[in-house]
């Protein structure tokens, strides 16, 4: 590698590191004050950079916060992938729902986005940032359901459209119910995730038996696709932050 190439790589690395630092600050401020009250001046001051430096990375305030959402999604997807890979039942329908729910529950920004919390994310709630749609795009969820059907790991008496609707309804329903429960009836994140998984299991998986060979085949196919999709998403984000 030539000296100029080495310097160029160091410059890119510094730019990416600075962009991540700015996004870290933006995340903290939007959770503290909300999107509508967080300004570029606030982010610049907290990040210890000039206001103009932020505009070297993003043309507008909205671009900055959209980049923040994209980074949160990539981080979420990476964490979901790792959780699923460590669970023998992770690639089953109940496993995916459980791990996705647990990851979102400990990511307040993603949770706010999922629930379209206007106090936190403001107009970003209406900019097409749909968490379930993103996971569908990332994981090829429709194709995944077809693979489950091919291996007899999900009910075949419902069409794919109905199964997608049911899965999303269970997923969203539990999240929307959480803040509405009165004191004394709240549950831990683990308890809620287990109930979500049990609900989707009873509704869509039922009493179907799962052979070791079928589970292995589905897990391998799903993890290979997820590895590729997450790697591509991370690469795209890295290029955007340079």
Structure commentary:
- Helices cover 74% and strands 0% of the residues.
- The mean pLDDT is 86.
- The protein has twelve helices and no strands.
- The chain has a single domain (72-241), classed as Tetracycline Repressor, domain 2 (Orthogonal Bundle).
- The chain has helices at 3-33, 40-47, 51-57, 61-85, 93-105, 108-114, 118-121, 131-139, 141-150, 160-177, 189-205, 212-241.
- It is globular.
Tags for this model:
242 residues; mainly alpha; Tetracycline Repressor, domain 2; 74% helix; globular
Count of β-strands? 0
Oligomer: single chain
Could you spell the SSE succession in H and E letters?
HHHHHHHHHHHH
Estimated structural class: mainly alpha
Write the layout of secondary structure elements.
Elements: H1 3-33, H2 40-47, H3 51-57, H4 61-85, H5 93-105, H6 108-114, H7 118-121, H8 131-139, H9 141-150, H10 160-177, H11 189-205, H12 212-241
Helix pairs in contact: 1-2, 1-4, 4-5, 4-12, 5-11, 10-11
The gist of it:
74% of the residues lie in helices and 0% in strands. The chain is an all-alpha fold. The protein has a single domain (72-241), classed as Tetracycline Repressor, domain 2.
């Amino acid at each position: 590698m030539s000296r100029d190439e080495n310097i160029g790589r160091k410059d890119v690395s510094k730019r990416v590191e600075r962009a991540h630092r700015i996004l870290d600050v933006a995340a903290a401020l939007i959770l503290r004050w909300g999107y509508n009250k967080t300004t570029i001046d606030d982010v610049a001051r907290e990040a210890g950079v000039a206001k103009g430096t932020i505009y070297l990375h993003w043309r507008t305030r909205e671009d900055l916060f959209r980049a923040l959402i994209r980074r949160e999604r990539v981080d979420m997807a990476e964490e979901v992938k790792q959780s699923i890979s460590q669970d023998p039942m992770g690639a089953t329908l109940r496993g995916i729902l459980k791990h996705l729910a647990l990851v979102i529950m400990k990511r307040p920004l993603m949770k706010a986005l999922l629930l379209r919390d206007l106090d936190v994310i403001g107009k970003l709630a209406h900019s097409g940032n749909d968490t379930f749609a993103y996971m569908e795009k990332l994981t090829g969820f429709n194709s995944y359901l077809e693979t489950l059907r091919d291996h007899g790991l999900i009910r075949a008496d419902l069409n794919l459209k109905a199964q997608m609707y049911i899965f999303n309804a269970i997923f969203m329903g539990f999240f929307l119910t959480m803040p509405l429960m009165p004191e004394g009836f709240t549950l831990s994140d683990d308890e809620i995730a287990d109930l979500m998984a049990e609900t989707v299991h009873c509704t869509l998986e039922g009493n179907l038996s799962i052979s070791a060979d079928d589970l292995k085949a589905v897990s391998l196919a799903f993890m290979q696709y997820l590895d590729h999709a997450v790697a591509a998403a991370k690469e795209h984000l890295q290029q955007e932050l340079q």
